[in-house]
Polyketide cyclase (Niastella yeongjuensis), 320 residues
Amino acid sequence: MRTVVLFFTRSLGVIAGTIYALVLRLVFNINGEDAPFSLFTVTFIWVTPVVIGIIPLFFASKELLQKSYVFRIGSPILTVTVFFLLCFLTRIEDIICLWIILIPYVVAAAFAGFIAGEIIVKIKDKKSTLYSIVLLPFIVSPIEQQFKTTVENYKVVTKVIIRASPEVIWNNIIRVSQIKESEYTRGFFNYAGIPRPLYAELNKDTLGGTRVGHFEGGLQFVEKVISWDRNRHIGFNISVVPSTIRKTVFDQHILKGNYFKFLQADYNLTVLPDGRTELALSSSYQLNSHLNWYGSYYGNQLLTDFQERLLQVIKNRCDR
Protein backbone atom coordinates (compact mmCIF):
# COMPACT_ATOMS: atom_id res chain seq x y z
CA MET A 1 0.00 0.00 0.00
CA ARG A 2 2.83 2.38 0.88
CA THR A 3 4.38 1.72 -2.53
CA VAL A 4 1.13 2.60 -4.28
CA VAL A 5 0.81 5.84 -2.33
CA LEU A 6 4.43 6.73 -3.08
CA PHE A 7 3.94 6.07 -6.79
CA PHE A 8 0.75 8.15 -6.85
CA THR A 9 2.46 11.02 -5.05
CA ARG A 10 5.38 11.07 -7.46
CA SER A 11 3.10 10.76 -10.49
CA LEU A 12 0.91 13.59 -9.24
CA GLY A 13 3.92 15.90 -9.12
CA VAL A 14 4.93 15.05 -12.68
CA ILE A 15 1.36 15.51 -13.89
CA ALA A 16 1.04 18.88 -12.15
CA GLY A 17 4.36 20.05 -13.60
CA THR A 18 3.37 18.91 -17.08
CA ILE A 19 0.00 20.68 -16.96
CA TYR A 20 1.70 23.85 -15.72
CA ALA A 21 4.22 23.63 -18.58
CA LEU A 22 1.47 23.17 -21.18
CA VAL A 23 -0.42 26.18 -19.83
CA LEU A 24 2.72 28.32 -20.01
CA ARG A 25 3.42 27.13 -23.55
CA LEU A 26 -0.03 28.25 -24.68
CA VAL A 27 0.12 31.56 -22.81
CA PHE A 28 3.57 32.43 -24.14
CA ASN A 29 2.40 31.73 -27.68
CA ILE A 30 0.08 34.74 -27.61
CA ASN A 31 1.09 36.98 -30.49
CA GLY A 32 1.03 40.73 -30.71
CA GLU A 33 3.50 43.59 -30.84
CA ASP A 34 2.84 44.58 -27.23
CA ALA A 35 2.16 41.09 -25.89
CA PRO A 36 3.70 40.60 -22.41
CA PHE A 37 4.75 37.06 -23.28
CA SER A 38 6.88 35.52 -26.02
CA LEU A 39 8.42 32.14 -26.75
CA PHE A 40 11.70 33.74 -27.83
CA THR A 41 12.67 35.05 -24.40
CA VAL A 42 15.00 34.24 -21.55
CA THR A 43 11.89 33.75 -19.42
CA PHE A 44 10.43 30.94 -21.51
CA ILE A 45 13.71 29.25 -22.42
CA TRP A 46 15.45 29.39 -19.03
CA VAL A 47 13.11 30.56 -16.24
CA THR A 48 10.15 28.36 -17.14
CA PRO A 49 12.04 25.03 -16.92
CA VAL A 50 13.33 26.04 -13.47
CA VAL A 51 9.76 26.30 -12.21
CA ILE A 52 8.73 23.13 -14.06
CA GLY A 53 11.58 21.30 -12.35
CA ILE A 54 10.57 22.44 -8.87
CA ILE A 55 6.84 21.65 -9.08
CA PRO A 56 7.20 17.82 -8.73
CA LEU A 57 9.12 18.39 -5.51
CA PHE A 58 6.09 20.12 -3.96
CA PHE A 59 4.36 16.74 -3.76
CA ALA A 60 7.25 14.82 -2.17
CA SER A 61 7.80 14.14 1.51
CA LYS A 62 10.64 15.70 3.46
CA GLU A 63 12.17 12.27 3.88
CA LEU A 64 12.22 11.63 0.13
CA LEU A 65 13.69 15.04 -0.64
CA GLN A 66 16.41 14.63 1.96
CA LYS A 67 17.45 11.10 1.01
CA SER A 68 16.90 10.78 -2.73
CA TYR A 69 18.97 12.92 -5.07
CA VAL A 70 17.81 10.62 -7.86
CA PHE A 71 14.23 11.78 -7.24
CA ARG A 72 15.23 15.43 -6.98
CA ILE A 73 16.94 15.29 -10.37
CA GLY A 74 14.94 12.55 -12.07
CA SER A 75 11.41 13.87 -11.45
CA PRO A 76 12.11 17.28 -13.08
CA ILE A 77 13.67 15.55 -16.11
CA LEU A 78 10.71 13.16 -16.31
CA THR A 79 8.30 16.11 -16.18
CA VAL A 80 10.13 17.84 -19.05
CA THR A 81 10.12 14.58 -21.02
CA VAL A 82 6.35 14.11 -20.61
CA PHE A 83 5.81 17.77 -21.53
CA PHE A 84 7.87 17.40 -24.71
CA LEU A 85 6.07 14.18 -25.63
CA LEU A 86 2.63 15.80 -25.25
CA CYS A 87 3.76 18.86 -27.23
CA PHE A 88 4.86 16.61 -30.07
CA LEU A 89 1.78 14.34 -30.02
CA THR A 90 -0.61 17.31 -29.97
CA ARG A 91 1.44 19.16 -32.64
CA ILE A 92 1.96 22.11 -30.34
CA GLU A 93 5.66 21.81 -31.21
CA ASP A 94 7.73 20.23 -33.97
CA ILE A 95 10.71 17.98 -33.28
CA ILE A 96 13.08 20.72 -34.43
CA CYS A 97 11.59 23.22 -31.95
CA LEU A 98 11.81 20.73 -29.08
CA TRP A 99 15.39 19.92 -30.01
CA ILE A 100 16.31 23.61 -29.87
CA ILE A 101 15.01 24.01 -26.30
CA LEU A 102 16.07 20.54 -25.12
CA ILE A 103 19.34 21.53 -23.45
CA PRO A 104 18.07 24.49 -21.38
CA TYR A 105 14.94 22.61 -20.32
CA VAL A 106 16.74 19.48 -19.16
CA VAL A 107 19.67 21.31 -17.57
CA ALA A 108 17.63 24.05 -15.87
CA ALA A 109 14.96 21.65 -14.61
CA ALA A 110 17.50 19.14 -13.25
CA PHE A 111 19.62 21.85 -11.64
CA ALA A 112 16.55 23.46 -10.07
CA GLY A 113 15.44 20.12 -8.66
CA PHE A 114 18.88 19.40 -7.22
CA ILE A 115 19.21 22.81 -5.54
CA ALA A 116 15.58 23.35 -4.56
CA GLY A 117 15.26 20.09 -2.62
CA GLU A 118 17.03 21.43 0.46
CA ILE A 119 15.21 24.75 0.29
CA ILE A 120 11.80 23.11 0.01
CA VAL A 121 12.52 20.92 3.02
CA LYS A 122 13.24 24.02 5.14
CA ILE A 123 10.17 25.99 4.06
CA LYS A 124 7.83 23.06 3.46
CA ASP A 125 5.35 24.39 6.01
CA LYS A 126 5.22 27.83 4.39
CA LYS A 127 2.98 26.74 1.54
CA SER A 128 2.02 30.19 0.30
CA THR A 129 5.68 31.14 -0.07
CA LEU A 130 6.49 27.81 -1.66
CA TYR A 131 3.74 27.80 -4.25
CA SER A 132 4.20 31.44 -5.24
CA ILE A 133 7.14 30.44 -7.43
CA VAL A 134 4.67 29.30 -10.10
CA LEU A 135 3.94 32.99 -10.72
CA LEU A 136 7.57 33.76 -11.51
CA PRO A 137 7.34 33.48 -15.35
CA PHE A 138 4.23 35.66 -15.37
CA ILE A 139 6.09 38.35 -13.43
CA VAL A 140 9.47 38.15 -15.15
CA SER A 141 8.27 37.99 -18.75
CA PRO A 142 6.42 41.37 -18.81
CA ILE A 143 9.50 42.94 -17.25
CA GLU A 144 11.78 41.35 -19.84
CA GLN A 145 9.52 42.60 -22.62
CA GLN A 146 10.18 46.18 -21.55
CA PHE A 147 13.79 45.84 -22.67
CA LYS A 148 14.49 46.38 -26.36
CA THR A 149 15.51 43.36 -28.35
CA THR A 150 18.89 43.35 -30.07
CA VAL A 151 19.10 43.14 -33.86
CA GLU A 152 22.22 41.28 -34.99
CA ASN A 153 23.42 39.84 -38.29
CA TYR A 154 25.22 36.54 -38.71
CA LYS A 155 27.00 34.85 -41.58
CA VAL A 156 27.71 31.21 -42.38
CA VAL A 157 30.32 30.24 -44.98
CA THR A 158 30.74 26.75 -46.42
CA LYS A 159 33.36 25.71 -48.98
CA VAL A 160 33.96 22.73 -51.24
CA ILE A 161 36.69 21.83 -53.74
CA ILE A 162 35.41 20.65 -57.12
CA ARG A 163 37.38 19.13 -59.99
CA ALA A 164 35.74 21.25 -62.65
CA SER A 165 36.14 24.62 -64.33
CA PRO A 166 34.31 27.70 -63.01
CA GLU A 167 32.22 27.72 -66.22
CA VAL A 168 30.82 24.26 -65.51
CA ILE A 169 30.10 25.04 -61.87
CA TRP A 170 28.55 28.40 -62.72
CA ASN A 171 25.89 26.78 -64.87
CA ASN A 172 25.02 24.48 -61.97
CA ILE A 173 24.60 27.20 -59.36
CA ILE A 174 22.77 30.01 -61.10
CA ARG A 175 20.09 27.46 -61.96
CA VAL A 176 19.68 24.19 -60.11
CA SER A 177 17.84 21.44 -61.94
CA GLN A 178 15.56 19.06 -60.06
CA ILE A 179 17.44 17.40 -57.20
CA LYS A 180 16.53 13.74 -57.09
CA GLU A 181 16.14 11.82 -53.84
CA SER A 182 19.14 9.69 -54.81
CA GLU A 183 21.31 12.83 -55.12
CA TYR A 184 20.50 14.34 -51.77
CA THR A 185 21.64 12.86 -48.45
CA ARG A 186 19.13 13.73 -45.77
CA GLY A 187 20.35 14.67 -42.32
CA PHE A 188 18.91 15.19 -38.85
CA PHE A 189 17.42 18.58 -39.70
CA ASN A 190 15.54 17.17 -42.70
CA TYR A 191 14.07 14.33 -40.66
CA ALA A 192 13.19 16.85 -37.94
CA GLY A 193 11.10 18.89 -40.36
CA ILE A 194 13.40 21.21 -42.34
CA PRO A 195 12.46 20.88 -46.04
CA ARG A 196 15.13 19.87 -48.52
CA PRO A 197 15.79 21.94 -51.68
CA LEU A 198 14.19 20.77 -54.93
CA TYR A 199 15.30 23.15 -57.69
CA ALA A 200 16.00 26.82 -58.48
CA GLU A 201 15.09 28.78 -61.59
CA LEU A 202 16.53 32.11 -62.83
CA ASN A 203 14.60 34.32 -65.24
CA LYS A 204 17.59 36.14 -66.79
CA ASP A 205 21.39 35.92 -66.66
CA THR A 206 22.20 39.38 -65.45
CA LEU A 207 22.14 41.79 -62.56
CA GLY A 208 18.55 42.35 -61.44
CA GLY A 209 17.44 38.86 -62.38
CA THR A 210 15.12 36.91 -60.12
CA ARG A 211 15.78 33.40 -58.96
CA VAL A 212 13.12 31.32 -57.22
CA GLY A 213 14.22 28.50 -54.92
CA HIS A 214 11.71 25.67 -54.49
CA PHE A 215 11.65 23.41 -51.43
CA GLU A 216 9.63 20.47 -50.20
CA GLY A 217 6.13 21.25 -49.06
CA GLY A 218 5.78 24.06 -51.59
CA LEU A 219 8.00 26.51 -49.68
CA GLN A 220 9.56 29.14 -51.98
CA PHE A 221 12.18 31.84 -51.62
CA VAL A 222 12.57 34.77 -54.02
CA GLU A 223 16.21 35.65 -54.61
CA LYS A 224 16.98 38.94 -56.37
CA VAL A 225 20.39 39.09 -58.08
CA ILE A 226 22.24 42.04 -56.50
CA SER A 227 25.79 41.25 -57.68
CA TRP A 228 26.97 39.45 -60.81
CA ASP A 229 30.43 38.59 -62.08
CA ARG A 230 30.08 35.71 -64.51
CA ASN A 231 31.95 32.55 -63.49
CA ARG A 232 33.28 34.29 -60.37
CA HIS A 233 30.54 35.60 -58.13
CA ILE A 234 26.79 35.91 -57.80
CA GLY A 235 24.89 37.40 -54.88
CA PHE A 236 21.19 37.40 -53.99
CA ASN A 237 19.02 39.02 -51.41
CA ILE A 238 16.49 36.55 -50.05
CA SER A 239 12.87 36.76 -49.00
CA VAL A 240 10.35 34.03 -48.34
CA VAL A 241 7.11 33.95 -50.34
CA PRO A 242 4.53 34.40 -47.53
CA SER A 243 1.81 32.38 -49.25
CA THR A 244 4.11 29.33 -49.41
CA ILE A 245 4.99 29.22 -45.71
CA ARG A 246 3.96 25.83 -44.41
CA LYS A 247 1.58 25.30 -41.50
CA THR A 248 4.29 23.66 -39.41
CA VAL A 249 5.06 25.18 -36.02
CA PHE A 250 8.68 25.86 -37.02
CA ASP A 251 7.77 27.72 -40.22
CA GLN A 252 5.08 29.75 -38.50
CA HIS A 253 7.39 30.82 -35.68
CA ILE A 254 10.59 31.36 -37.65
CA LEU A 255 9.62 32.35 -41.19
CA LYS A 256 6.43 34.21 -40.30
CA GLY A 257 7.61 35.87 -37.09
CA ASN A 258 9.81 38.90 -36.55
CA TYR A 259 12.65 37.05 -34.88
CA PHE A 260 14.48 35.57 -37.88
CA LYS A 261 15.09 36.98 -41.34
CA PHE A 262 17.17 35.75 -44.27
CA LEU A 263 19.28 38.55 -45.74
CA GLN A 264 21.63 37.41 -48.49
CA ALA A 265 23.35 34.47 -50.15
CA ASP A 266 26.54 34.56 -52.21
CA TYR A 267 28.44 32.08 -54.36
CA ASN A 268 32.14 32.72 -54.91
CA LEU A 269 34.33 30.70 -57.29
CA THR A 270 38.11 30.65 -57.00
CA VAL A 271 40.34 28.91 -59.54
CA LEU A 272 42.84 26.47 -58.00
CA PRO A 273 45.74 24.50 -59.52
CA ASP A 274 45.20 21.26 -61.45
CA GLY A 275 41.86 22.28 -62.89
CA ARG A 276 40.13 22.52 -59.53
CA THR A 277 37.78 25.25 -58.30
CA GLU A 278 36.87 26.30 -54.79
CA LEU A 279 33.15 26.99 -54.47
CA ALA A 280 32.12 28.99 -51.40
CA LEU A 281 28.50 29.52 -50.39
CA SER A 282 27.78 32.13 -47.73
CA SER A 283 24.43 32.96 -46.20
CA SER A 284 23.63 35.84 -43.88
CA TYR A 285 20.63 36.19 -41.60
CA GLN A 286 19.29 38.50 -38.93
CA LEU A 287 18.04 37.75 -35.43
CA ASN A 288 15.88 40.07 -33.37
CA SER A 289 15.38 38.79 -29.83
CA HIS A 290 16.75 38.69 -26.30
CA LEU A 291 18.36 35.35 -27.10
CA ASN A 292 20.43 36.07 -30.20
CA TRP A 293 23.48 34.39 -28.66
CA TYR A 294 21.48 31.19 -28.24
CA GLY A 295 19.50 31.37 -31.48
CA SER A 296 22.60 32.02 -33.56
CA TYR A 297 24.14 28.75 -32.38
CA TYR A 298 21.26 26.76 -33.86
CA GLY A 299 20.89 29.09 -36.84
CA ASN A 300 24.54 28.49 -37.73
CA GLN A 301 24.14 24.74 -37.32
CA LEU A 302 21.05 24.62 -39.50
CA LEU A 303 22.53 26.72 -42.31
CA THR A 304 25.85 24.90 -42.21
CA ASP A 305 24.05 21.59 -42.58
CA PHE A 306 21.92 22.90 -45.47
CA GLN A 307 24.89 24.43 -47.30
CA GLU A 308 27.10 21.38 -46.93
CA ARG A 309 24.42 19.08 -48.37
CA LEU A 310 23.61 21.45 -51.24
CA LEU A 311 27.27 21.96 -52.16
CA GLN A 312 27.77 18.20 -52.14
CA VAL A 313 25.01 17.87 -54.74
CA ILE A 314 26.72 20.49 -56.91
CA LYS A 315 30.10 18.83 -56.44
CA ASN A 316 28.74 15.42 -57.46
CA ARG A 317 27.18 16.97 -60.57
CA CYS A 318 30.32 18.83 -61.63
CA ASP A 319 33.24 16.63 -60.57
CA ARG A 320 35.15 15.11 -63.44
The chain has a mean pLDDT of 90.
